[in-house]
Amino acid sequence: MGPVRIAVLSDIHANLAALEAVLAHAEGQGSLEAIWSLGDLVGYGPQPRECLALLRRYTFQSVAGNHDLAASGVIDTRAFNPAAATANHWNAAQLADADKEFLKSLPLTITDDELALAHGSLRDPVWEYLITLPAAIGQFQRMETPYSIVGHTHVPLVFEDAGEGSLPEYWAVGDGEIVELGESRLILNPGSVGQPRDGDPRAAYAVLDTGAKTMTFYRVEYEIKRTQAAMHEAGLPEPLIKRLRRGR
Ligand code: ZN
Q1: How many angstroms is it from 164 CA to the middle of ligand 1?
Q2: Distance CA 92, CA 137 (A)
Q3: 103 C-alpha to center of ligand 1: Å?
Q4: Residue 3 above 70 pLDDT?
Q5: 152 C-alpha to center of ligand 1: Å?
Q6: How far, in Å, is the centroid of ligand 1 from the Cα of 2?
Q7: pLDDT-based confidence at 165, cuts 50/70/90?
Q8: Any alpha helices (H) in the chain, and if so which ranges?
């Protein structure tokens, strides 16, 4: 079997322009076998239905994020900040019943021999922000696989297990960086397609190559103005529109 390329996308957040740019970038370098998502397909952005329809044209699997569960009525938006809650209610109102059923059906974790996927973490798939050393240690303790992939923080990051008694190493991953899936146990976060929060407004994603055993991280320019215009049109909260340009 030849190399298998899987696009690893997280926190798309109904940003169709960003999703299209990322898929064009990924497919420009070779065929994609599948798309894996770390959740938060909807929420914040202006085109939830269009994003779901596009993703479902691929061999696609996703875990559930907090925004997916809120938009499909599984959880309420009490724990959301007011702008996020407003945008989530608007997103929910755009979705067809079949979209909501699809979101409701998403598992909290997906695990195979080598990889575990969760939106937040294995300990708390819906809510935990895996961005601190204690959170990373908790994740490594729970991992029954050498590698795990998470989202939710909207920051591309890798944690490496440095072994018993040592704190995990971690680093922010840049555009074009290749991470080898080798001996060390790793937690990988591809960052957010639809609402980056590391100060770089470009869409973030990664490609997993199961032949080469690598994950390559990318940043892709997209038409931010197109998404912002659609958000204005929808009457979505102004701070959510502005933050796309800042990448925070
Ligand atoms: Zn998110």
Answers
A1: 32
A2: 35
A3: 14
A4: no
A5: 5
A6: 33
A7: confident
A8: 16-27, 48-55, 66-71, 82-94, 97-104, 133-142, 224-234, 238-246
CA 138 to chain centre: 20
Interval 212-247: pLDDT, tens? 999 999 999 999 999 999 999 999 999 999 999 999
Distance 56 CA to ligand 1 centre (A): 19
Say how many residues make up the chain.
248
What domains can be seen in the chain, in order of their start residue? Answer: 5-246 (3.60.21.10)
| Whether residue 12 has pLDDT greater than 90 | yes
The string of pLDDT tens digits covering residues 20-40 is: 999 999 999 999 999 999 999
Distance 163 CA to ligand 1 centre (A): 30
Mean pLDDT of the chain: 97
Q: Where are the beta strands (DSSP E) in 121-160?
A: 147-150, 157-160
Name the pTM for this structure: 0.97
- Buried b / exposed e over 110-137, threshold 16 CB at 10 Å, is beeeebbbbbbbbebbbebebbeeebbe
Residue 86 scores a pLDDT above 80: yes
CA of 40 to the centre of ligand 1 (A): 5
pLDDT at 2 over 90: no
Distance 7 CA to ligand 1 centre (A): 17
Side chain identity, residue 248: R
- Cβ-in-10-Å burial (0-12, 13-18, 19+) of 233 comes to exposed
Distance 1 CA to ligand 1 centre (A): 34
CA of 192 to the centre of ligand 1 (A): 7
